[in-house]
UniProtKB/TrEMBL annotation:
This is Serpin domain-containing protein. It comes from the Eukaryota. Belongs to the serpin family. Keywords: Signal. The lineage of its organism: Eukaryota, Metazoa, Chordata, Craniata, Vertebrata. InterPro entries: Serpin_CS, Serpin_dom, Serpin_fam, Serpin_sf, Serpin_sf_1, Serpin_sf_2.
């Protein structure tokens, strides 16, 4: 099975505040120089060959050593990565809490890593109260060597087939401070470029997402001075594949009265690690990919996903310590392709970051009043059996006595990089087939003592793994 995930964050049109000082600020910028080492173009900096800069390969190879040297060897890179990963999960769950599904977008899928990276890059130029607010929201206020550790984490996750592209577009006449440009390039590989026409920005996005996100922006605001943008892409293959010949149309229970038919993948004897999480009142299962990636599914015992309860009780390190040994069972998982797009100003304001959109102190980027005028996020997730080969399970006889894990009502999911326990994508899937026709009927389900729902035809009861 293949999973394709794309997320793109359009972070800040940092624009001049409407004050007299901003006019003087523009005049001062007109006379400033960029760098002698590089000249900006819409395609990025054109480097002066005489300028000596370290190669990216050398920089990446020394990432872990530099982090431990600067931060003290009493803190291992693994522990620091876990600390960053935990912070990204907390940030992502809080963001989910502040995003509401609607009729047009019943499912919410975000890349907390993408949004986290953009706001972390912004902290390079934030000062005083603004920096404090950002670090607090990112759960990084007490983290030593935060930026160095984040750089090390990015180097680490890129080894696992995760692609991250970053670009900084600058308005005509706007010259950020060299310290900000250099740190952005060193830590985030964010190359500065002159802001081109809208079509060229969309072309960069399309190229960075392998043509899966097109026409991302429909317009630009008047006189933007900076645009920070990144794209995250992951394509993985299940460690144990699903056979597409077993995929059939089956009901998915949106709630107690609404049902929609979805393409349901079936693994008759699928090795799965699953346990009951009493605090979440849910079953938690782990679907590993080849490499160090896993899809974690939280299936509530009821049809309602309580994201507040998940945010309060879900700890990645705790989950990984509680996953039992895999056992073969019948598994059903919806096949879907879903998109999500949202302006994040309201959600970030709800997280205590209203200050970014009114009067932040971004003096580390440039002198003069600047503010964030828009944060846009778009993600796409596809789970299917494309490219999967026929499995030996073709001849397996499905037994009613087999334990079963059936994902046929709303659920929470997380794509996690295992070794650093960093969440790349989070989502609440309420309807895997939003374009399908819903039916109003009473679910014909069998409930076991835990309250889980099951398909009568295959599994009248759920065999829980031994405690």
């Amino acid at each position: 099975m293949d999973v394709r995930l794309f997320a793109l964050l359009f972070l800040c049109y940092c624009k001049q505040g409407w004050t007299v000082n901003s006019l003087c600020f523009l005049q001062d910028l007109q006379s400033s120089n960029i760098s002698d080492a590089a000249q900006l173009t819409p395609d990025g900096p054109q480097t002066n060959p005489a300028a000596s800069t370290p190669t990216k390969e050398k920089d990446e190879n020394s990432s872990e050593e530099d982090t431990e040297e600067h931060c003290g060897r009493h803190l291992s890179s693994t522990k620091m990565r876990h600390a960053i990963g935990s912070g990204i999960m907390k940030f992502g769950l809080q963001l989910l809490e502040n995003l509401n599904a609607n009729k047009e977008q019943p499912n919410i899928i975000i890349s907390p890593l993408s949004v986290f990276l953009a706001l972390s890059q912004l902290t390079l130029g934030a000062r005083n109260e603004t920096e404090e607010l950002l670090l607090q929201s990112l759960h990084a206020k007490t983290m030593p060597c935060y930026q160095d550790t984040l750089k090390d984490l990015l180097h680490h996750v890129r080894k696992n087939h995760l692609q991250i592209a970053s670009r900084m577009y600058l308005g005509s006449g706007f010259h950020p401070k060299q310290e900000f440009l250099q740190a952005s390039l060193k830590i985030y590989d964010s190359e500065p470029a002159i802001m081109p026409e809208l079509e060229e920005i969309n072309e960069w996005v399309e190229k960075s997402t392998n043509s899966c996100i097109t026409d991302f922006l429909t317009s630009l605001p008047p006189d933007p001075v900076m645009l920070l943008i990144n794209a995250v892409h992951y394509k993985g293959e299940w460690l144990t594949r699903f056979d597409p010949r077993f995929t059939t149309s089956e009901p998915f229970y949106i709630d107690k009265s609404q049902v929609v038919n979805v393409d349901m993948m079936l693994g008759p004897k699928h090795p799965l690690s699953v346990f009951t999480h009493n605090e979440l009142d849910a079953q938690v299962a782990r679907f590993p990919f080849k490499g160090n990636m896993s899809l974690v599914v939280v299936l509530p015992l009821t049809s309602y996903v309580n994201i507040s309860a998940i945010a309060a009780n879900l700890e990645i390190s705790d989950l990984y310590s509680r996953f039992p040994r895999e056992r073969n069972m019948q598994v059903k998982l919806p096949k879907f392709k879903l998109d999500f797009s949202r302006e994040l100003e309201e959600a970030l304001t709800g997280m205590g970051l209203r200050h970014l959109f009114s009067s932040p102190n971004l003096a580390g980027i440039a002198e003069g009043p600047l503010l964030v005028s828009s944060v846009q996020h778009k993600s796409s997730m596809e789970i299917n059996e494309e490219g999967a080969q026929a499995a030996a399970a073709t001849s397996v006889v499905i037994s009613r006595s087999n334990p079963s894990f059936t994902v046929n009502h709303p659920f929470f999911l997380a794509l996690i990089e295992d070794s650093s326990q960093t969440p790349l994508f989070l989502g609440v899937i309420a309807n895997p087939n939003p374009g399908g026709s819903t039916m109003t009927s009473q679910p014909k389900l069998v409930l076991d003592k835990t309250g889980l729902t099951f398909d009568k035809e295959f599994s009248p009861s759920f065999g829980l793994p031994p405690k």
